[in-house]
Each structure stands twice: as structure tokens, then as C-alpha cells.
Automatic annotation (TrEMBL):
Residues 4-120 form the Response regulatory domain. It comes from Paenibacillus glycanilyticus. Signal peptide: none annotated. One of its GO terms (molecular function) is DNA binding. It comes from the Bacteria. PROSITE patterns: HTH_LUXR_1, HTH_LUXR_2, RESPONSE_REGULATORY. The modification 4-aspartylphosphate is found at residue 55. Keywords: DNA-binding, Phosphoprotein, Transcription, Transcription regulation. Residues 153-218 form the HTH luxR-type domain. This is DNA-binding response regulator.
Length: 225
């Protein structure tokens, strides 16, 4: 039986990237997408997913209010927060709604998949940064919600150098900087420099966005080869 997932996020690039990533998992079924909190609540009732993957900063209704309504109306549906906010002013209210977990968008794709599987089984899921913040009762530096730049700049792989393409392709497979460095036989510091350049050229905020954005492009490239 596949895990039925409803994805709620208002960033189109992130939404498409995560949707593609979820569709690649053999035990996941993406049953729907929502572009704001109100739509997430409505589709949760209509589609009855097992998991709602919930962004927090969304128009019309934010993810915290949407999570609370979903848990109130459908207690059996599990809400797993996926956001860029790491401050306790967001963490605590989100968890108080009954969300089963709180993940940050810089999580590695394979770790996100495992978090979804574990949450489906009823296990609480917390990003390592969130666990440390709650245990120490200190707030990590707030992370602003990623801003997707809509410019005339072509977000294509043509903007990248051959080495950056190699790094990006390995990044889409969920490899860490250390693993990429070992694969390409270069220094880890060099990989970090390449990743920073890749994010800048693609106008993306973090490695997860880059991986999710590029994954379908590499798959299409492989299919055309």
C-alpha cells in the first residue's frame, strides 16, 4: 500500500521539484497539491491523504492555521511541516497544532523521504536543528523563507560549467558535499564553492531546492540520450 501525500507549498519551483521527487518514490502516491493553506484544508478533506506535507508561509491561510484545522477536522491525517523557518515562534505553534513533525527545507531529499515514511508509522520527526533548538531551549538564527526570483535569467543547465553540472547531478542523488568530493576526487571546500555558484546561477536558495529543481532535467536528459 502506498503512502498518500498531499503537498502544500506556494512556491511553484519548489512545488514542482518536490512533486517530482515524491513521484520517484515507489511507495509514495502524490494525491494532490495545494497552493495556500485554505486549499490545503479543503483538499485534505476531499482527498483524505495519509500525510500532508505542509509549508508554513502561504497566502490566504498560513500553514499553522491550516494544520490546526486539518487535525481538528481529520485527526487521522498526519501533518509533517516542511519549511525554512527554524525559530521557536514557528516551531512551537506548529507542533501545538498536532503536527507529527517539523522538517527544514535544507534536509537531504533521501532524509525527507525517510521522514515521511517514519511519520506515516506514527513516529515524531524533527530536523536535527529543530531537535537541538528544543532541547537547548535556544533559538537558532531565523531562516527567511526562500524567495524565488522570477527574472528573465534562464534557469537552465546551460548556465553551469561542466564541473558544476557534475556536482549538481550528484547533488540530485542526495549526496553530501563530502560524498561528492570523494566521488569527484576534489576537496570538500571546492565542492562547497561549486554548490554556492550553482545556487547563484539558478537563483535558488539552498541545495534541496537545487536538487529538486534539477532532478527532472537530468532524468529528461537521460531519457533523450
Amino acid at each position: 500500500m502506498k503512502i498518500k501525500i498531499l503537498l502544500a507549498d506556494d512556491h511553484q519551483i519548489v512545488l514542482k521539484g518536490i512533486s517530482f521527487f515524491l513521484a520517484m518514490q515507489p511507495d509514495f502516491e502524490l494525491v494532490g497539491e495545494a497552493h495556500n493553506g485554505k486549499e490545503a484544508v479543503e483538499k485534505a478533506g476531499e482527498l483524505q491523504p495519509d500525510i500532508v506535507l505542509m509549508d508554513l508561509n502561504m497566502p490566504i491561510m498560513d500553514g499553522i492555521e491550516a494544520s490546526a484545522l486539518i487535525k481538528e477536522q481529520h485527526p487521522h491525517i498526519k501533518v509533517l511541516v516542511l519549511t525554512s523557518f527554524a525559530d521557536q515562534s514557528h516551531i512551537v505553534p506548529a507542533l501545538q497544532t498536532g503536527a507529527i513533525g517539523y522538517m527544514l527545507k535544507d534536509v537531504e531529499p533521501d532524509q525527507l523521504a525517510e521522514a515521511i515514511r517514519s511519520a506515516y508509522k506514527g513516529n515524531i520527526q524533527l530536523h536535527p536543528d529543530i531537535s537541538r533548538a528544543l532541547l537547548s531551549r535556544t533559538e537558532p538564527e531565523p531562516r527567511p523563507e526562500p524567495v524565488i526570483q522570477h527574472s528573465s535569467k534562464d534557469k537552465s543547465l546551460e548556465a553551469l560549467t561542466p564541473r558544476e553540472l557534475e556536482v549538481l547531478e550528484l547533488l540530485t542523488k542526495g549526496l553530501s558535499n563530502k560524498d561528492i568530493a570523494q566521488t569527484l576526487i576534489v576537496a570538500e571546500k571546492t565542492v562547497k564553492t561549486h554548490v554556492s555558484s550553482i545556487l547563484s546561477k539558478l537563483d535558488l536558495s539552498d541545495r534541496t531546492q537545487a536538487a529538486l529543481f534539477a532532478a527532472p532535467l537530468f532524468q529528461n536528459k537521460g531519457q533523450m540520450a
